[in-house]
Automatic annotation (TrEMBL):
Residues 149-200 form the Fibrinogen C-terminal domain. It comes from the Eukaryota. The lineage of its organism: Eukaryota, Metazoa, Cnidaria, Anthozoa, Hexacorallia. GO terms for cellular component: collagen trimer; extracellular space. InterPro entries: Fib_collagen_C, Fibrinogen-like_C, Fibrinogen_a/b/g_C_dom, Pan_app. One of its GO terms (molecular function) is extracellular matrix structural constituent. Pfam families: COLFI, PAN_1. This is Fibrinogen C-terminal domain-containing protein. Keywords: Collagen, Disulfide bond, Secreted, Signal. Residues 1-31 form the signal peptide. It is found in: Secreted. SUPFAM superfamilies: Fibrinogen C-terminal domain-like. Residues 34-117 form the Apple domain.
Length: 368
């Protein structure tokens, strides 16, 4: 028992030494170096890239084999029919081959991950001072160059984050439309119609406060819940962001969904200019938008009956008001029919004229 314990302590010490050497021991002539550590993911394996395999060794020994094997970038710890560990050494990792990273219960994946990349030159004083990072990394700690993940490294827009390809899930990200270092946390829709949409107005019915709504006069208030933007705020945002599309999405029980985005044409651009306050000319409705896949509204199929202009209803136009409230007071509606309407006084319409509210009903507007 004492011999086994001593052997185990020796192996642990040896492994720790190898890790230290893997991170810090580099030749003086090396110009670029990236330190690595193992990451672990349960119930996952990387398939199709095995360069060697060993039966009945534990996770610790399998990691040691990978460290000592040239070309090994990750390992799988799997269980065979006799419930013994099966160690597989892989020539790739989940970052290089994400399509082969699969679910497999009772297995575990371990892969090398870069944790820092710095320029290591013979002039160590210059290196410590400059902290030059490997391509794809930035900052004093050489973080991955994924804009939008941190406030100190924001993107200019949700679309820029989408185009970079690092993040494809809806959620909160950091953007700096003015590029002045004053980043703002926002919600980005990365899945609808190709993604890259910035949420600029959002009302979600809450049973505790069904009429709650804040009118925001600066685009920097878009991270506020239960808010709508004024015309001036949208204009301010467009002057910095240069978005070219607006998307309206409301959903109301039982099953009313109005979901359209302005088209990539001159008629769609006229809608963007109108709601951005760049013009007071109410744009034509028909031909100015495309219906999203889940749109089931009556209103989207009656564009020729939209709007009000110069005392006349059903003129085929967007809008009802030329004032600051044009984005939320009847931006689209059919007289005595279907409406989009979110009043500060609590009235909410989504493709219907009813006034009842159900928890979860929402009205959201995005730009891209």
């Amino acid at each position: 028992m004492a011999v086994q314990r001593a052997t185990h302590i020796f192996l642990m010490s040896f492994y720790a030494l190898l890790v230290i050497l893997a991170i810090f021991a580099v030749p003086e002539s090396s110009a670029d170096y990236c330190g690595n550590v193992f990451e672990t993911t349960a119930n996952r394996v990387l398939l199709g890239h095995v360069i060697d395999s060993v039966l009945d060794i534990d996770e610790f020994e399998c990691r040691l084999r990978c460290i000592g094997e040239k070309g090994c970038k990750s390992i799988n710890i799997r269980r065979n029919g006799n419930k013994k560990n099966f160690c597989e050494l892989n020539s790739q990792n989940r970052q290089t081959m994400p399509q082969d990273f699969r679910v497999e219960n009772s297995s575990t994946y371990h892969g090398f991950v870069q944790v820092s990349c710095v320029d290591i030159s013979s002039d160590k004083k210059r290196q410590r001072k400059s902290r030059l990072c490997h391509p794809g990394y930035h900052g004093e700690r050489c973080q991955p160059d994924h804009k939008g993940l941190y406030s100190h490294h924001p993107a200019s827009s949700c679309k820029e984050i989408r185009n970079a390809g690092h993040f494809k899930t809806d959620g909160e990200y950091w953007v700096d439309p003015e590029k002045n270092g004053n980043a703002l946390k926002v919600f980005c829709d990365m899945t609808t119609d190709g993604g890259g949409w910035l949420l600029i107005s959002s009302i979600v019915i809450d049973t505790a406060a069904p009429n709650q709504m804040t009118v925001v006069s600066s685009y920097r208030g878009i991270n506020t819940s239960q808010m709508v933007l004024t015309k001036g705020a949208v204009n301010e945002l467009r002057s910095h962001l240069g978005f070219t599309q607006i998307r309206f999405h409301c959903s109301r029980h039982p099953g009313h969904i109005f979901h359209v985005a302005t088209a990539a044409n001159s008629t769609g651009e006229a809608v963007v200019q109108y709601f951005s306050g760049q013009t007071d000319i109410q744009p034509n409705a028909c031909g100015s938008f495309v219906r999203m896949d889940n749109d089931n509204s009556i209103m989207s199929r009656q564009c020729h009956q939209w709007g009000w202009e110069n005392g006349t209803y059903k003129v085929g136009k967007w809008g009802h008001s030329r004032d600051q409230d044009r984005l939320y007071i009847y931006p689209a509606f059919v007289y005595h029919g279907q409406h989009w309407h979110t009043s500060p006084h609590g009235t909410r319409y989504c493709d219907d004229g009813g006034s009842s509210k159900t928890a979860g009903d929402f009205w959201k507007i995005y730009v891209r």
